[in-house]
Design a protein that fits this description.
- Pfam families: CheR, CheR_N.
- This is protein-glutamate O-methyltransferase.
- Residues 274-298 are annotated as: Disordered.
- It comes from Corallococcus carmarthensis.
- This protein has helices spanning 5-19, 28-41, 47-56, 62-71, 82-99, 117-128, 147-155, 160-163, 169-175, 187-190, 224-237, and strands at residues 105-110, 137-144, 157-158, 176-179, 182-185, 193-197, 210-215, 238-246, 259-264, 267-272.
- The protein is of the alpha/beta class.
- The protein folds into two domains: 5-71, Chemotaxis Receptor Methyltransferase Cher, domain 1, CATH 1.10.155; 82-272, Rossmann fold, CATH 3.40.50.
- Strands 6-2-1-7-8-10-9 form a seven-stranded mixed β-sheet.
- Strand 1 (105-110), helix 6 and strand 2 form a beta-alpha-beta unit.
- Helix 1 (5-19) crosses helix 4 and helix 2 packs across helix 4 (62-71).
- The chain is globular.
- It starts with a helix and ends in a 26-residue tail after the last strand.
Length: 298
């Protein structure tokens, strides 16, 4: 049975409230496809029966959460958008290290981390720079609203298709070991990554501040009010000299969002707007000394 218009409207409203995802009016077929597994898991005859059950339950029920997770896009890969990691390695990371040399502490937040490829790519970048063995305290917080995705992220096990997306053979050999038909990340690189459930629609209960925020390829699914509200929360979490990086296809934060844009190589990074009204937006970040290097680069 196809998805009825009033059922689709109900799903649109509930998903928007729960995850910020805007379901466009022409996505009926996509919604039906993504909810097929949930219909089977609940042993229901069709999607209309699923919506009926959702309507009978409180909005905060586990089934509503599973519905929102099923409709989310968990597409990801290791070192996705390579220029971002080039900029991290050559400019952003050295600049942060120079400012944190006294505390020797670095805190990074990967929001909407899906199955963990992004935070582990960051951890491998830090490992290549020697930061995981040189006495620095490194914490990488990986969050997602999907508890199922976080279970996979915390396991750090990937199948053949996933392990070949974005990883060079050298990095695969250095940081993974094969476990039957899957590859698992080594303990040294898993250790600094903490996986924690967090819904970006809620107030952030994280300890502030953080030095670097990855919020990539998630705001493209939100409407403007949601985007502005989340950016305001992120701004409060970020060090005054910290960095925010978004997906390449996402709209830039505006000055009124509290950020200025900085071009680093082929990528855009955003920093908290300076207090001075005369500070200019968009000025490039000065190059900093490169970190120690210990092998192949991602």
């Amino acid at each position: 049975m196809p998805l009825f218009p009033d059922d689709f409207a109900y799903l649109r409203q509930r998903v928007l409230r729960r995850s910020g995802l805007v379901l466009e009016s022409d996505t009926h077929a996509l919604v039906e496809t993504r909810l097929t597994s949930l219909v089977r898991e609940e042993r229901l005859p069709d999607i209309a029966a699923l919506v009926s059950r959702l309507r009978s339950l409180p909005e905060g029920s586990p089934l509503h959460q599973r519905m929102a997770e099923a409709l989310a896009n968990h597409e990801t890969a290791f070192f996705r958008d390579a220029p971002v990691f080039d900029a991290l390695r050559t400019t952003v990371l050295p600049a942060l290290l120079a400012k944190r040399v006294r505390t020797r502490t670095l805190r990074i937040w990967c929001a909407a981390c899906a199955f963990g490829q992004e935070p582990y790519s960051v951890a491998m970048t830090l490992a290549e720079a020697g930061l995981l063995i040189t006495g620095w305290t490194v914490r990488i917080l990986a969050t997602d609203f999907s508890t199922r995705a976080l279970v996979r992220a915390s396991e750090a096990r990937y199948d053949a298709k996933e392990i070949h997306r974005g990883l060079t053979p050298e990095l695969r050999q250095r940081y993974f070991h094969q476990d039957r038909d899957r590859w698992r990340l080594i303990e040294q690189v898993r250790r600094p990554v903490e996986c924690r459930p967090l819904n970006l629609m809620d107030d952030f209960p994280l300890e502030a501040p953080v030095d670097l925020v990855f919020l990539r390829n998630v705001m493209i699914y939100w409407d403007v009010p949601t985007r502005r509200a989340v950016l305001a929360r992120v701004r409060r979490m970020l060090h005054a000299d910290g960095y925010l990086v978004l997906g390449a296809a996402e709209a830039s934060p505006l000055v009124e969002d509290g950020f200025t844009r900085h071009l680093i190589g082929q990528t855009s990074w955003y920093r908290p707007a300076p207090a001075s009204p005369n500070a200019s937006a968009g000025s490039p970040v000065a190059d900093a000394p490169r970190p120690p290097h210990s092998g192949a680069t991602p």
